[in-house]
Amino acid sequence: MAVFRCSCHQITWGDNLVEAIDDIGSFGYAGTETFGTVVTQFAGRAHDFQAMLQARGLRLSALYGGGPLHDPAQQAEAIANNLAIINFLHEMGSDRLVLGPGRRDGTPSAEDMARFASGVTEVAAAARDKGIVAGMHPHWNTVIEQRDEITRFFDAVDTDLVKLALDPAHIAKAGDDPVEVASCYRDILTYMHIKDYVPELDVETPDVASAQDHAPRIAFFGELGTGVVDLPALLDVAREAGYDGWLTVELDRSQTTPRQSLEVNSRYLTERLGFDLGGENA
Q: Which of 105, 108, 156, 220 is deepest in the core (most CB within 10 A)?
């Protein structure tokens, strides 16, 4: 039986870590995801980060790593960075690693794809040795953006080792169907971002109500239920697959404030989906 546990990514708050976990904790979420930058910030002090989360009723659902694993000039450093993230996750008692691909520079070559697949495989194997599952996260404007690139990647790796960390909004932004992707790879779905793509916000210069200079410039994602992603259908696929794991709300940039966007997203989860943010949901 499928079980969804609700988490929220800290990306909307930029580098305001305390504000992020204060807000996420106050809404009653069970978990939170953030970037691997906390490994440096809390080097040798994972217990301090753990205490900060626990004080707000939160667990670390995942860390976001990855990077330019396809680039021969940067691959070794990227692998080392991910190994540090794995060790930190292990210290935190967390078991999911999200691997975002490196930035796109035109259509990725066969060599790019092969190097990326080998880099992800090396990181995923190291993660498995620590009891951590690694999922590759297809992402707009990276070497794994288009539907055929997703296929080429998973054809090139051992899917007993490398899983899928799904983000439906990035797939929709690329012009593909996230429900189809979820259905195709349902057996290797290990982690899920829940996120919406709003074409009306997809403009060259973001029009934001309040400047958030610390937050990403990606402004074409919106609160849950405001865009084109069929989120209920996506969750139906996960249910049919018996998905048992985190459902992590993510919004790169709020059009209002991070807390106001979190309120909208939380209302969608509780009122539209009937979820308990702090409990287990079928």
A: 108
Amino acid at 177: D
